[in-house]
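I'm stuck. Protein, please.
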Amino acid sequence: MNKNKDINLSNAISGVLVIDKPVGLTSHDVVQIVRRGTNIRRAGHTGTLDPRASGVLVVLLGPAVRLSEYVSASDKRYQAIVRLGESTDTFDSEGQVMNVSPVEITEDRFNDILSHYVGEIEQVPPPYSAVKVQGRKAYDMAREGETPDLKPRKIMVHNLELLEWEAPEAVIDVFCSSGTYVRSLAHDLGRELGCGAHLVGLRRTKSGQFTLRDAVPLRKLREAFENGTWYQYLIPAAEALSDWFSIELNQEQLDLVQHGHRIPGEGGQAGMWARGISEQGELVALFEFKEDTNEWQPKKVFFQ
């Protein structure tokens, strides 16, 4: 793509912007900034970061927004600061302090309890969250003095590691599945330790395949919007699913896929999904393998 060319064909642009979101903005705020800066209305993020959290926010542009359900489901990684000795009604520092207890916890004890939360666990979302209960958002109910009946959800915590210990605060690395509430993790840790705890800082260091190394600070991106060089930060849509099995499609296969036809595969790939890439490296389609015919069935096609 010629970055110096004034491109008016906004609808033809498809890709990913990986942004280092600063504290103080909502994820929606960042998407709005991207829409205005790129003049592309079709844009969306793939996993909310609270206003008080910073770090990796993946924004999909153009036809790439159709990848959202797959990218949003990707694992996430965070650095979290947990303060022991105080529990709050929101499970973070935004809320009202509910209980205060002395912190007589050793680093070894903290590590021991931390290990209880690795693996597949059930987690109850925070009462001040966007989870819907009978059609209403939990935080709306909580603000009106109601207690939302939030059901536990199964999540996967791949790894928890204590990075810094300076009681009453601990910095932990959290590698987890999408849908994990780090606020709830902090609250649950405090409850099991018997002294209470809440989250005081959160930075997302990885979202799916993208890390802070891939992320451009929002300030720098805004400057690029102003001088027209933002295209240099646009990552090909195919990279959003770079951990998927990849099929390079020749011209004959491209013609078949554009019309929704299957292409041949090999046995032993039952239940697999794959991304179809053109010889130019562009994302063409997402496929599901059909064992009955040993063929790849296009499920989403990104150009006609």
Summary: Residues 80 and 182 are 8 Å apart (CA to CA). The chain has three domains: 10-74+209-239, 77-181, 244-301. Residues 77-181 form a domain with the Pseudouridine synthase fold (CATH 3.30.2350.10).
